[in-house]
Specification:
- It is a single chain.
- The chain is α/β, with parallel strands linked by helices.
- The chain contains eleven helices and eleven strands.
């Protein structure tokens, strides 16, 4: 198997590469070569370059992780970029894969942002199209919906094996702490750390704190991807998550406790909460992939905080820059 992992140098991508380095799954355990080009080495939006890459390396399988992503703030600032870049990348990969004589399967990793804003909790896979996504990340979510539908169409028309996975919010090592692009957990960690540095007894966070989120350890998500590569061959989507939700207010208190800071957490309400609730029904992943999240929330938060502490030591100037931006 010659495997292309797009986005291999990103948050989830690093966990997927680490998984392949440490252990293998099923029938492709021997003779597997994985390719991890950076965006400068392979432009996924360049049709000719991608076609040549797939042909020259005789790529047989693709795990598509590459994405233009960010939190609520980034999605509000650049919705057109998020929609266009993600859509073109995803469609181009699936299109060129369908034209390649070597490709046997594509794992397309989607997003929980594709679900309707007021989807019934827990989210069922068949409810993805039962409403419009939450407005602040609708462009990104709809782009990912379209890619999923294109994969289904290729399966119908050409019998191409495309697997659509729908992971929930991820946490763990390699997460992004840049204030303009970070998600909720690194954003909270950074603000609490700044309060510690400034001897402040108060931290202000966006929203109301009442919204809920579900989190999955990125290493567990990598395992689910490996299982899908080995076990699953149909394009109907599969939720990948823990099946447990927590209020943002409670999440912030938990992180503060772990960072040994006991100040006041104030939710300003100045920015939208985003989707009111997020929690997946994960029965299908258990049934079809034999996957169940193995890392609880406390453990994944401790892993992310430990990673942040490593960054403080290895890249102090970068962390200082981030602190100056918030």
């Amino acid at each position: 198997m010659n495997l292309l992992i797009t986005g291999a140098h990103g948050f989830l991508g690093k966990h997927v590469v680490k998984m392949f380095e440490e252990r293998c799954f099923g029938w492709y355990g021997t003779g597997c070569i994985w390719f991890t080009p950076s965006s400068t080495e392979l432009d996924l939006m360049n049709t000719k370059a991608l076609s040549l890459y797939l042909t020259n390396h005789k790529i047989t399988h693709i795990i598509h992780l590459a994405a233009n992503v960010g939190g609520i703030g980034a999605n509000k600032r650049k919705p057109a970029d998020f929609m266009y870049n993600n859509l073109i990348m995803g469609l181009n990969i699936l299109r060129q894969a369908s034209l390649s004589p070597f490709i046997k399967k594509v794992i397309n990793v989607g997003t929980i942002c594709s679900y309707p804003k007021h989807a019934e909790v827990p989210f069922l896979e068949e409810d993805i199209f039962n409403g419009y996504p939450e407005e602040t990340n609708a462009a990104y979510g709809i782009a990912k919906r379209a890619i999923m539908v294109y994969g289904e169409a290729l399966n119908t028309q050409h019998n191409m094996k495309v697997v659509n996975l729908m992971p929930v919010n991820l946490a763990g090592e390699y997460d992004k702490f840049h204030p303009l692009n970070s998600h909720v957990i690194p954003a909270i960690i950074l603000k609490i750390y700044k309060a510690i540095q400034n001897h402040s007894t108060r931290v202000e966070l966006w929203g109301t704190g009442t919204a809920t989120r579900e989190f999955l350890y990125a290493g567990d998500c990598a395992e689910a991807i490996g299982l899908a590569l080995d076990k699953y061959e149909t394009p109907d989507p599969i939720n990948i998550g823990s099946g447990e939700e927590i209020r943002i207010n409670d999440l912030a208190k938990k992180i503060a406790l772990m960072m040994e800071w006991n100040g006041d957490i104030i939710f300003t309400g100045q920015v939208s909460d985003g989707q009111p609730r997020r929690c997946l029904d994960v029965k299908k992943a258990e049934d079809k992939l034999n996957f169940k999240a193995g890392t609880d929330l406390d453990t994944m938060l401790l892993k992310e905080i430990a990673y942040f502490n490593e960054l403080k030591k290895s890249q102090p100037e970068v962390i200082k820059l981030f602190l100056d931006m918030i």
